[in-house]
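Cont'd.
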Amino acid sequence: MSKTETDTTPAADRGGPHQPLIIASGLKKHFPVRSGLLNRQTATVHAVDGVSFEVKKGETLGIVGESGCGKSTTARLLIGLIELDDGSIIFDGDKLGSDISLKELRRGVQMVFQDSYASLNPRLTILDSVAFGPKLHGLKDPAGIARNLLGRVGLDPDRFAHRYPHELSGGQRQRVNIARALAMSPRLVILDEAVSALDKSVEAQVLNLLNDLREELGLTYVFISHDLNVVRYISDRVLVMYLGEVVEVGPVESIYETQAHPYTASLFAAMPSMDPDNRTEEPPLAGDPPNPINPPSGCRFHTRCRFAEGVCASRKPKLATIGGDADHLAACHMHDAASGHSLALKEAAE
Amino acid sequence: MFAYLVRRLIYVLPVAIGVSIICFLLVHIAPGDPLTAIMPVDATQEEQAAMRAAYGLDKPLPVQYAIWVGKAVTGDLGKSIATGRPVADEVFAAVKNSLLLAFTASVIAFPIGLFLGFVAGYFRDTLIDRAVTAFAITGVSVPNYWLGIVLVIIFSVTLGWLPSMGAGPGGSGAWAWDFAHIKHLILPSVTLAVVPIGIVARTVRALVGDIFSMDFVQALQAKGMRPLDVLRHVIRNAAPTALSVMGLQLGYLLGGSILIETVFNWPGSGFLLSNAIFQRDLPLLQGTILVLALFFVTMNLIVDVAQAAIDPRIKRS
Amino acid sequence: MTLTADQADLAEPVRKAPGYWSGVFRRFLKDPVAVTCTVIVLLLILAAIFAPYLGLNDPYKASMIKRLKPIGYPGFPLGTDEQGRDMLARLIYGGRLTLFVGLVPVVLAFVFGSTLGLIAGYVGGWVNTVIMRTVDIFFAFPSVLLAIAISSALGAGIVNSLVSLTIVFIPPIARVAESATASVRSLDYIDAARASGGGALTIVRVHVLGNVLGPIFVYATSLTSVCMILAAGLSFLGIGVRPPEPEWGLMLNTLRTAIYVNPWVAALPGLMIFITSLCLNLLSDGLRSAMNVKD
């Protein structure tokens, strides 16, 4: 193995195979809204409000939800681009802030952004963009690492290394962004709508590349998207967010089979199907999500939920296991026999 | 809208305070003692100290500033060292003349600038556009104090049609709307109008050109709207920016006419200012600059509020 | 897996794709107006620098008999001024101070203004508030008024003119720099660089500067024309360069009294200011369109 090869292999596993790579608990981010005469803080956007989840080693966790539900904010919290207001992140057993520093975390976690053009410095050749991180960390032969990675993501370094971003197609640029993320030899890569802006055919190629890289390099992905088909294709587990909260999480087959939370159900109902026999009967979700400045009380979805009852407005449901699957959790009073929701009682009676 | 107005007014306050601090400090960054101009050369130490105390110059700077501002707010800007008259009176009389000049120049400049800019924007990349662009860039490049001299050479010295100096027969005196006075107004106001013509024309050309290339205009044209009606839509979209540029230019004309007023001996604030400079009449200098700058701040405020009133996009935020 | 071929490749010099600036240069050269204006400005600067070697008359040598001679007078191709000094020599020598005081403040303001704007735009928060609100206060003065106010307080002189004009042009450049930096700051590649562990200074150097200096530079060149006119204007008012130095604004002022005797000679210094400022404006326009081209 050559020198450059070793530099791109992931850092050593510390906690063993059963230690989750990421344990995020109670993540909170509130953005102040300033207005009025003295520019005082008059309101708070509850962008991410108490989000907890785990990412197991080697898996791909898909995060889905409408725009504005806090998906991207969660991603940026995971990599420390914005500061946590509350909550903790444990990376392979090491707590951020006490066991490892932000700088150390960032060596292990990298991110690919949605806008392939805005995420590359237009004045740098793609070689320089990819080599920036390795150079910064004083690795040997950053240009070699970059060329190697470009080859790995399917861009012949001899042809592409010295091009500028505007000379590449969207798919090629996204490959560069993937190479740049890999240049830091991360163990977790966050893909924030990374294929959403690509043409369908290019999207498939990039998804396949991501799958290959995951196997080759033993990577773990957090895959954020609003495209349920893509999420199904790439993810092992899916996390559904609504207005800054987790409403449902579970293995991909389980969730795509039965949606426990009415919000998840309506999301899937809106998913276009190729099969004419499989047309959705359910009415699509009406209206826009409520303003995250003043999120609804109780279950945040109750304002748009067909099954909403008094308890939904007054009490916040907790994430709890659904049916027989211990990995499938949802936050809905209908699945909690003790909630007092009429449908929950019925379910319990059955 | 009301909240915007109030916020904008409150925002002006620190700017106005900053402006007054700069004007106050002008006297103190001046080399030498502010009193040397009026102090007898053979003044003794005691006399100097007494003078200093009389003018409040023995107090610490912040105290002096507070006293100065306190008086300025009540309209007392001190006394001119050269004439002994209250600075406020001098400035007020001069600003009236400057305003006359600035308004006349605006009346000349804005219609011409708007027209040229609109035509150039409408006929973008044609010969007309290029001619207007060339004219506009010449307008913004010309040193207007020189243009004033050239116009004097042509219309006063060579042709003898127009007077070259003052605001009326016999120099300054009171302004009157008669032919003799208006003749004095022509050369300085035309000179002053050239730069804003260029700036307004350039801005409007770019604005109109951009709007014409926007999707909504093409949609209007595609659905068969008559060109004149399309034009109405374009004008409505160009109006807020065009108005704000003109408003700012009016402010610039008042503050920037100093050189022109010097060329034409026009008894305005600029002329007053250059006299104050020559006689090192610091209270007069300070007062004139303060009044002009505050006028400019007010002008900006009016432009912003007016723009908010006609531009629906600003109202909402 | 062997990577020897790749690594052997690295030893060879790599072909650099044509960079951004060479593209700008190529486009600029295709603009005949901008190129002509650049040549004129360069000629004016060169003539001013090498004035002593051009075989001109002594620009300071006065003569009572040869006062205010017209253009084309034998021995004085552009006539003489009110003290009988050679106009041609004085106009060329005059370029030295005029161009110096007309251009240097913009360069200084570019340095200070960009720095302030970059800091304000990149750091944000209260640092931004302090810098930009201060800038707002200076913005409350029309530039002519501010230049005259500071110059008249400081008194005449070259250094004082440089100082006051620099102060005049820092605020507009800082504003442009701040907004350019703030918009680049919000782009994903800055976040990507931060995620790679880059410190603020490194990110500014590698990722911000290259993307904001261009627009700031173009904006600064558009100010040179105004600065020239203002600098000469200060001398015209008697608060810039001191006599007997040849300087276009000052010459225009002293020759004003001669407009009844020899009007066209009196207009010459102003014509020089006009030509220079026009060329600077056209040059800046050419640069702007050469740099705005997006692929």
